[in-house]
Write a structure and sequence with these properties.
Shape: globular
Number of helices: 7
Distance between the termini: 27 Å
Structural class: mainly alpha
Helix content: 55-70%
Strand content: under 5%
Strand order of the largest sheet: 1-2
Order of helices and strands: HHHHEEHHH
Number of strands: 2
Largest sheet: 2 strands, antiparallel
Length: 117
């Protein structure tokens, strides 16, 4: 599987957004995180992407969805919702964060800071 890449010279409209969504279904958290980084980098924030991020936000079982340390694909998905900064993604981010314990919130806050670097 080849992960799509957002190149600096490409515009948001030139990216195959369906390919990113397809790659998010790949059952490997490290591949999924690579795709999430590309989504954030390209600011790909259509309704389909936001919906997929909300779906992936539930994947927070450390044994199954672990990426690095205690970080899971769900944590990265929640962080991506914040960074995309659309009305829908921000609302979803706030709803999800309000239900999480402080430890998970801190993981996500760190991921958001790293996305913004």
């Amino acid at each position: 599987m080849r992960v799509p890449v957002v190149k600096e010279e490409k515009t948001k409209n030139m990216v195959d957004e369906a390919a990113f969504i397809e790659c998010l279904d790949y059952p490997n958290p490290k591949v999924q995180v690579t795709v999430l980084i590309q989504i954030v980098k390209g600011n790909i924030s259509n309704a389909e992407v936001v919906s997929k991020l909300i779906e992936l936000s539930k994947c927070r079982n450390e044994e199954i969805h672990k990426v690095f340390g205690k970080d899971t694909i769900g944590h990265y998905s929640i962080g991506a919702l914040q960074v995309l900064n659309t009305y829908e993604s921000t609302r979803a981010f706030e709803d999800i964060m309000s239900e999480l314990e402080e430890g998970e919130q801190n993981i996500i806050k760190r991921i958001v800071r790293n996305f913004n670097m």
